[in-house]
Write a structure and sequence with these properties.
This protein is α/β, with parallel strands linked by helices. Helices cover 43% and strands 31% of the residues. It is globular and about 30 Å long. The model has no long low-confidence stretch (mean pLDDT 90).
Length: 117
């Protein structure tokens, strides 16, 4: 898995590419998220648009991301989730834990809309 980080307007977009699976450098996401949180970032979008596969280990990474973010009073939102991963999130009820958006831009806007409301 490869991660690209983009910061804009107080929002961080982490773009994941490849496989989020056991033995596929799964600690990279955890480590990068922790770095962002320790740097004071509290609004994070995880763009899964280029993720080609996710197994139970990948789901565990998402759970860890959510729990870790909560400890820092931060929030992680998901974007560009493909059909197969969306099914996994539904089956495991993680679709009730995360806000899921069609695009990173929609997810980023949702932070701003909440701020205004």
């Amino acid at each position: 898995m490869k991660l690209d980080i983009e910061r804009s307007g107080g929002i961080v977009v982490m773009r994941a590419q490849g496989r989020i699976a056991l033995g596929q450098n799964e600690t990279t996401m955890r480590e990068k998220l922790r770095e962002l949180l320790e740097d004071g970032e509290t609004r994070i979008v995880l763009d899964l648009g280029e993720v080609t596969f996710m197994d139970s280990s990948g789901l565990a990474e998402l759970i860890t991301a959510h729990v870790t973010a909560e400890r820092y009073s931060a929030e992680v939102k998901l974007a560009s989730v493909d059909r197969n991963i969306a099914k996994l999130l539904d089956i495991t009820k993680l679709s009730y834990v995360f806000e899921i958006f069609d695009s990173p831009e929609d997810a980023a806007r949702s932070f701003e809309e909440r701020k205004i409301a």
